[in-house]
Amino acid sequence: MFVFSKGGIIIAHSWVLNYFNEFFGTMILILFGNGLVANSFLKVTTGNPGDTKANGGWVLISFSFSFGVMIPAMLFGSIAINPAVTLATAVAGTFPWVQVAPYLFCQVLGAICGQLLVVAIYWPYFRQTTNPELVFACFFTFDHAHNIWNGFVTEVVGTAVMMFVAIGLMPGFRCRPNFRWDHWHLLL
User: Fold this and answer.
1) Is residue 93 left, alpha or beta, with left meaning phi > 0 and alpha meaning psi from -120 to 50?
2) Which residues 6+ apart lie within 8 Å of 184 measured at CB?
3) What is the tens place of the pLDDT at every residue in 4-13?
4) Residue 6 CA: distances (Å) to CA of 33, 93, 138
5) Beta 9-13 vs 2-6: how paired, if at all?
6) Nearest Cα residue to 162 out of 74, 96, 91, 88
7) Cα torsion at 88, 94, 95, 97 (round to 10°)?
8) For residue 60, which of 9, 22, 54, 97 sits 20 to 30 Å off, Cα-Cα?
């Protein structure tokens, strides 16, 4: 059993519910984020009607990924929805190692299902898009500079910023006289 306090009420549930939360949380993240990438980049979608305008581009994609993180967090509470977060918390000793493999499995399976939904929804547009770079951009971090390390660095920095904010929002970790720095290493 996993026990946590929410608003003074003690809530207990099994790890199976956490696996469910990780699966659906990650699926929602991918569905929102990669779904909007597909809508922005693929040929003749409502987000990219072919008039060569930006049509929201990175601003809407950023908001979509933000909502893809926020909505599962609001629905399910404390979730990782990112294998890097799961591994970092386990290395830091704040998450049990015995739960890492099931969490990673549920997160990866949720990401695969989310991406399959994106492909199913946008299948006609995938078929009409002839530029492979635009198609590949719907599946992974891609830049037009063709620099593989740029995508990696972007993901590392983005995850570090997300972890910094998440740790800052945790109860007991805010900047006040009794602020504790004993979990700063989660950012590494």
Assistant:
1) left
2) 167
3) 555 555 555 6
4) 28, 22, 37
5) antiparallel
6) 88
7) 80
8) 22
Alpha helices in 129-172 (DSSP H): 132-136, 148-169
Judged on CB neighbours under 10 Å (0-12, 13-18, 19+), 35 is buried
Pure H helices in 57-99: 57-76, 83-91
Report the C-alpha gap between 20 and 167 in whole angstroms: 23
Q: What is the rounded average pLDDT for all residues in the chain? A: 80
Q: Please, are residues 141 and 155 in contact by the beta-carbon 8 Å criterion?
A: yes
> For residue 129, is it left (φ>0), alpha (ψ between -120 and 50) or beta?
beta
Sequence letter at residue 186: L
Percent of the chain clearing pLDDT 70 (strictly above): 76
> pLDDT tens for residues 90-120?
887 778 899 999 999 999 999 999 999 999 9
CA 155 vs CA 75, 133, 170: distances in Å:
24, 19, 22
Is the distance from CB of 45 to CB of 56 less than 8 angstroms?
A: no
In this predicted structure, the answer to whether residue 40 has a pLDDT above a threshold of 70 is yes
Higher-pLDDT residue of 158, 6: 158
Residue 186 near residue 163, CB atoms below 8 Å: yes
Question: Is the pLDDT reported for residue 1 higher than 50?
Answer: no
